[in-house]
Design a protein that fits this description.
- There is one protein chain.
- With 505 residues, the protein is α+β, with helices and mostly antiparallel strands.
- It has helices at 3-12, 34-51, 69-75, 77-80, 97-100, 114-123, 165-178, 241-245, 256-260, 267-283, 333-342, 367-378, 406-422, 435-445, 455-458, 483-490, and strands at 16-18, 30-32, 58-61, 66-68, 82-87, 94-96, 140-143, 147-150, 156-160, 185-194, 209-219, 235-239, 252-255, 291-295, 307-315, 320-331, 359-366, 379-382, 385-388, 399-403, 427-429, 449-453, 467-472, 478-482.
- It has 3 domains: 3-78 and 146-379, BirA Bifunctional Protein, domain 2 (2-Layer Sandwich); 82-143, Herpes Virus-1; 387-494, Anticodon-binding domain (Rossmann fold), CATH 3.40.50.800.
- The protein contains 16 helices and 24 strands.
- Helix 2 packs antiparallel against helix 10 (267-283).
- The structure holds zinc ion.
- Zinc ion binds at residues 88, 90-91, 93, 128, 130-131, 133.
Length: 505
């Protein structure tokens, strides 16, 4: 589906819309409606089920979203969390330098200084994307954090967290004290992050307030045991940085064993590449051929990242592969910086091992981006039928219950829905319009199962008394199922997969 078609459909169905829409909307801010809110929760639940399922020592915490100034000074965000901006001297429009340089430097401006960017602008006589003038200012760094006055004196500064990772680093010492005092220790956060983007765009892809799901794994670099043999045969779709430098951009399918062989990439890193890849393929159900692990080169990645592969999925609405997550090996940068900044030594002594300043492996996901990707990948148009092929455990409305005739079959339908709800399965009763219309509405909302209550359900004399028609969304196959067995029949479909588990459908 094209970008504008998808936006229109999602808005019409109440999945999401621009914030303060009645005031004309606000750039880079979106609100989720009922379907969007539930879908987002399901994605977060599936993420937790998968990644916290990797170890009993991985925990979710919920931090405050404001960071005091000393924290962002130590983390480097005050100094370095900037995007070079260029202003047009003629029309006064402001652009990200990356936008101005798009045609002459498609690989982006990461790693370039403002002076180097300015040199490229002059050399190519680049023009204002808005009015065409060449009166562009020298790029200057623009800090992307939202700073706030804190407290009544106005002398203290705090910042809306620009990433959720910092909260995990700040909590490490406390988590160590309250936990089992072993490494690896994982601290996950699912929360808002805020960035004052110069040019928000592509709907959920560059927002000013968005949700991240991040797992920071603290580990001893000399000892990070993983069950590598479980994943060694997995073929990973990779684009290596060195291949790109040699002009080869295509995806290669390489066995995990080979990636970790000959001291290439650490086993613990490849293991988490596999788990992240499987999350996209087996949990979010993106077709394997649309997923790739894209390695960032020395120049492209942040200086503290020793290894970085982005998880990218090919999205029709955005015309190519888009980054939805990433795996960052950050070394000891974070605990080192916060150790210095706070004066609190963050090295630890795991039982039976020497003192160590833990390293960090970060698994990071943009929840909003992933929600968008689920719409892009799974909203399916076939002739005049539109249906959202969401995996059942991600569906905002798991079951729709339809009385064939509103009056005659309404009470029985409500009782079926109530029985499902008391079994922990969310079901809604829909009585509006023909059965065909109701199926269509539920198809578009991604509801995997429709249950129809009809005359045979309620008539004591009917051989089908006490049964309903169960319709499956994707195949449209129908069968009669006893009401008594409905919940037990459907429940397995609503459990999100866990690593190493088996799939219900
Ligand atoms: Zn201009």
């Amino acid at each position: 589906m094209k970008l504008d078609e998808l936006v229109a459909l999602l808005r019409r169905r109440g999945v999401l819309w621009p914030s303060a829409e009645i005031y004309g909307g606000t750039q880079g801010l979106y609100d989720y409606g009922p379907l969007g809110t539930r879908l987002k929760q399901r994605i977060e639940d599936a993420w937790q089920s998968w990644f916290l399922g990797l170890s009993e020592d991985y925990h979710l915490i919920q931090p405050a979203e404001l960071l005091p100034e000393p924290v962002v000074r130590a983390s480097g965000h005050l100094e370095n969390f900037t995007d070079p901006e260029v202003t047009c001297g003629h029309c006064h429009a402001v652009f990200r330098a990356e936008t101005v340089l798009e045609k002459v430097r498609p690989e982006g401006v990461d790693g370039l200084s403002p002076a180097e960017i300015g040199e490229i602008v002059t050399r190519h006589q680049l023009r204002c994307p808005s009015c065409g003038s060449t009166e562009l200012t020298v790029p200057r760094p623009f800090n992307l954090m939202f700073g706030l006055d804190f407290g009544v004196t106005g002398r203290e500064r705090v910042y809306l967290q620009p990433e959720t990772a910092q909260a995990s680093y700040l909590s490490f010492a406390r988590m160590w004290d309250v936990g089992r005092r072993t490494l690896p220790l994982g601290v996950a956060v699912i929360a808002h992050a805020y960035r004052n983007e110069i040019a928000p765009r592509q709907v959920l892809f560059r927002m000013r307030a968005f949700t991240q799901a991040e797992l920071q794994i603290f580990f001893d670099p000399t000892d990070f045991p993983v069950p590598f043999s479980d994943v060694a045969d997995e073929l990973l779709p990779v684009v290596r940085a060195r291949d790109r430098l040699a002009g080869r951009e295509e995806v290669r399918r390489v066995a995990a064993r080979e990636l970790a062989g000959a001291g290439e990439l650490p086993e613990f890193y490849v293991y988490h590449m596999v788990q992240s890849y499987r999350f996209y393929r087996d949990v979010l159900r993106h077709p394997a051929e649309r997923i790739r692990l894209f390695e960032k080169s020395d120049q492209e990645r942040a200086f503290y990242n020793r290894i970085q592969f982005d998880l990218e999925v090919q999205l029709e609405s955005l015309g190519g592969f888009k980054e939805l997550g990433a795996i960052h090996y950050r070394g000891d940068y974070d605990l080192g910086r916060h150790g210095q900044g706070s004066g609190h030594d963050l090295s630890v002594v795991p039982t039976g091992r020497p003192r160590v300043l833990p390293h960090v492996l970060e698994l990071t996901f943009g929840v909003d981006r992933n929600l968008w990707a689920l719409a892009d990948a799974h909203l399916t148009v076939e002739g005049d039928r539109t249906y959202w092929k969401l995996p059942s455990y991600l569906s905002p409305v798991p079951v729709g219950v339809f009385p064939l005739l509103k009056k005659e079959h309404g009470p029985a339908a409500r009782s079926v829905a109530e029985r499902l709800r008391s079994a922990g399965i969310r079901a809604v009763v829909d009585t509006a319009g023909s059965i065909g219309k109701r199926y269509a509405r539920m198809d578009e909302a991604g509801t995997p199962f429709g249950v129809t209550v009809d005359g045979e359900t309620v008539e004591a004399a009917s051989p089908n008394h006490g049964t309903v028609t169960l319709r499956e969304r994707d195949s449209r196959a129908q069968e009669r199922v006893p009401i008594d067995r409905l919940a037990e029949r459907l429940r397995p479909f609503f459990v999100p997969p866990r690593p190493g588990g088996t799939r219900a459908d």
